[in-house]
Amino acid sequence: MTIGEVVNLLDAEILCGEDRLDTEIHTACGSDMMSDVLAYVKDQSVLLTGLLNPQVVRTAEMMDMLCIVFVRGKRPEPAVIELAREKGIVLLCTQKRLFVACGILYTNGLGG
Amino acid sequence: MSECIRLEYEVDGQNFASAGHASESVKRMLKQMGVPAQHVRRVAIAMYEGEINMVIHAHGGTAVAEIYPDRIDITLADHGPGIADIPLAMQAGYSTATENIRSLGFGAGMGLPNMKKYSDDMKIESQLGVGTTVKLRVDFGE
Ligand SMILES: Nc1ncnc2c1ncn2[C@@H]1O[C@H](COP(=O)(O)OP(=O)(O)OP(=O)(O)O)[C@@H](O)[C@H]1O
Ligand SMILES: [Mg+2]
Hints:
- The complex is a heterodimer of chains A (112) and B (142).
- Chain A has 112 residues and is an alpha/beta fold.
- Chain A contains 5 helices and 5 strands; from the N terminus they run H-E-E-H-E-H-E-H-E-H.
- Chain B has one domain: 2-Layer Sandwich (Heat Shock Protein 90), CATH 3.30.565.
- Helices cover 37% and strands 29% of the residues of chain B.
- Chain B has 5 helices and 5 strands, in the order E-H-H-E-E-H-H-H-E-E.
- In chain B, a hairpin with a 2-residue loop joins strand 2 and strand 3.
- The mean pLDDT of chain B is 96.
- The A-B interface holds A 32-36, 38-39, 49, 51, 53-56, 58-59, 61-64, 79 and B 16-20, 23-24, 27, 37, 41, 44-45, 48-49, 52, 102, 104-111, 113-114.
- The site of magnesium ion has 4 residues of chain B, from helix 2.
């Protein structure tokens, strides 16, 4: 699916990267522990998380991820959005909880 | 021109938000130099884990990257508390991280084993009360 479809499925707000909604993605992961993302994630291109600090963007950048979804309606500080913009990472924000958001994407064909 | 590009960074131990700055810069440089993506990612992850460790466990320090055509040597040196038992620290899941660090998304005890996994060579020298130096080598072959 595309990042645009993720936006629709999660009823998400786009915080940055509006110009990259056509990007194809195939896999995602959900975690609040960046340690685990760094240790266990392989080629996933979307990170769903409830964590908001700048290291979420840095972790995604090191792993060559394309998109971060902040769950439970949480929004990061402007500096974090700016960092993601610089790195070319799409940031989305959804009201849904982590488990629900992951479930919706998984049911709609996104792999783990 | 010698065959080595040397980059040096101060890693600010007081500023969690800026942690990862050095790794990010090295990653960008390797990409520009055309190093294959899988190796760039190995370097980025291993160095980033080390850089985060310097900030969360050791009040910062210096990071030096020496880039050769076939490899990168990374030296992460701090003047933190040191590591008492290195084999124990290397075990997956071993962490002395506080609840505060965990709330920031780190402290699973996976960093050092992950650095070992993604590098081709890793050496840790540490002295209690003096500091820790971690050396990583990542080869660009195959
Ligand atoms: N530079 C350092 N100075 C002092 N102690 C360190 C340093 N790096 C690691 N350690 C010690 O080794 C332990 C294991 O490190 P490791 O990176 O594997 O896990 P962590 O940093 O606790 O958690 P994670 O890396 O999963 O976020 C740390 O909890 C800490 O006690
Ligand atoms: Mg660590």
